[in-house]
Amino acid sequence: KLVTNLVGLGVGLGTQSIVPRALGPAQYGDFSFLTGFFQQVVGFLNLNSSTAFYTRLSQRQQDRGLVVFYLYFTLLLGVILAVLSALCFTAGLRGTLWPGQKTLFIALGALWAFLSFCVMIVSDMSDAYGLTVNSEVMKIAIKLFGFILIVVLFLQHWFSLFNFFAYHLLILFLTIWLLARVIGHKGPPLHGEWRLKHEQVNMYTREFSSFCTPLIVFTAVASLVAILDRWFIQRFSGSVEQGFYGLAYQIGALCFLFASAMVPLVARELAVAFEKRDLVAMNRMFSRSAPMLYAIVAYFSCFLAAESGNVVLLFGGEAYADAVLPIAIMCFYPIHQTYGQLNASVFFAMNRTIAYRNIGLVITFIGIPLTLFLLGPKNHGALQAGATGLAVKMVLLQFTSVNIQLWYNTKLMNLSFKYFLGHQVLVVAVFGAVALICSFLVHAALGHAHFGLQFLASGIAYTLSIAGLGLAFPSLFALRREEIANFWRRWKQG
Q: Does position 172 have pLDDT exceeding 90, yes or no?
């Protein structure tokens, strides 16, 4: 997974330096709005069942009936999405729900969201079955193939919103097919009868219901608010601001790529440890993994935030000049995604979905007036802050919700909340200060050089500085001096 995400980081950097520039802020904003809209709709229809499926399959890898049941659920989700979309068109809601969007692109956005959900499911299955190596090799090949396609589209001047959707759909279909082949050849046998007995259907329905029912209200409210966030930008600030936020969000996602390789594996081990009632192992795993992954994401995020001016030039060009502030703010969003996903894994592994729901609902309801104030129209007393406003809201709520969840989980696992909170603040303060100092010194020394050279020089200086701090203070990365010494000793020995 680490290698895949390192390749993905390189491909992502290359892709993000081409796509926003080729499409322009308006078309890029339309793509971001439609895919984000339908991703939230699918997220609601999913009702967190995908998390239940991954958790249970990790614990019961030989349960073929579980896979068959969830396959039918996935197909049902696709049918419901198609019917709901058709009903919205029939009712004449296109202009209201998707301001300024063409029917074809709306349909492609819905298909994109469904196929993305399917990719997530087959990817989770490969992780649950312990087929990470095989599946990641396939993902690397697909990423490289996809990047070649992007370059060809760009060089041949074939870039358009339709072709970009077609590119995504091709890559998604290919990913589903290849990962399904890996699971079929390397995983537990899935061939045989694809019909479930009535008793099996009832059993799985009860199991998923007990997991998902407490989350229905929260999922519905959270999805609706997320849709409204993007709708408010589209309605009151337009596609260009949508494009600025879309670029900011994608750059933030690049910061999380490294850690996202490890989070699903840690989540799987947390679920297995709780199934065995090995709370000591669970506590040790969380205490070690969460701060380490947090520091790794902070390393990328703080640098890109400090270099947001050059980041805009690298990934978007002059047309995205007004996206500097949203990008700088959104770079801090993925820092706490690590804790967010690991916190959720603990809640779900321990079957504490009601507590997870209650915390989520409180934060979501706090976010509603923030959305109205930050994104609403100026003639109604709001700021109409567009991409910047939504970036501020996302970062504030992410920090708040993650730490409330963390406080709850540390009480459950008898861990020190103060340690985790202190580590969060210290890492961002130190890494952020180092990034700003390196950026300032490099820009002062190379003020007339190409922005790409400035970015590279600043990155080298920052990386060397953080590496030195890591060696001097390994606790920043949740490491001990003995572990670093052992690593160097083994590395020297070959």
A: yes
Mean pLDDT of 329-348: 90
Question: Which contiguous run of DSSP H or E holds residue 283?
Answer: helix 279-306
Q: Are the C-beta atoms of 443 and 381 separated by less than 8 Å? A: no
Phi first, then psi, for residue 376 (nearest 5°) are -70, 170
Joined tokens for residue 456: 């590279």
Q: 314, exposed or middle or buried, with CB in 10 Å at 0-12, 13-18, 19+?
A: middle
Cα torsion angle, 3, 9, 10, 11, sign:
positive
Q: Which residues contact 402 (CB under 8 A, 6 or more apart)?
A: 336, 339, 340, 343
Q: DSSP of 163-204, one letter per residue?
A: HHHHHHHHHHHHHHHHHHHHHHHHSS---S-----HHHHHHH
The distance of Cα 462 from the centroid of its chain, to the nearest Å, equals 25
- Asked if pLDDT for residue 247 goes beyond 80, the answer is yes
The whole-number pLDDT of residue 343 equals 92
**Structure confidence by residue, pLDDT tens digits, 5-51:** 667 777 877 888 899 999 999 999 999 999 999 999 999 999 889 98
Task: Using a pLDDT cut of 70, give the percent of the chain over it.
Answer: 97
DSSP 449-471: S-HHHHHHHHHHHHHHHHHHHHH
DSSP letter for 98, please. Answer: S
Q: How far apart are CA 182 and CA 122, in angstroms?
A: 10
Alpha carbons 483 and 480: distance in angstroms, whole number: 5
Condensed to tens digits (0 to 9), the pLDDT of residues 257-289 reads 777 777 777 877 887 788 788 888 888 889 989
Q: What is the 3-state secondary structure (H, E, C) of 308-327?
A: HHHHHHHHCCHHHHHHHHHH
Cα(1)–Cα(298) distance, integer angstroms = 19
Give Cβ neighbours of residue 437 (< 8 Å, ≥ 6 apart).
none
Question: Other CB atoms closer than 10 Å to residue 159's CB: what's the count?
Answer: 20
Its sign, for the CA torsion 178, 181, 185, 190, is positive
Q: What pLDDT is attached to residue 214?
A: 80
Task: Say if CB 26 and CB 162 are below 8 A apart.
Answer: no
CA 256, CA 333: separation in Å to the nearest integer? Answer: 9
- pLDDT number for residue 1: 59
Paired tokens of 188: 């537990």
Of 94, 66, 48, whose CA–CA distance to 220 is shortest?
A: 48
Residue in 25, 108, 13, 103 with CA at minimum distance from that of residue 386: 25
What letter does residue 287 receive in the DSSP assignment?
H
Q: Tell how many helices (H) and how many strands (E) occur in the chain.
A: 21, 0
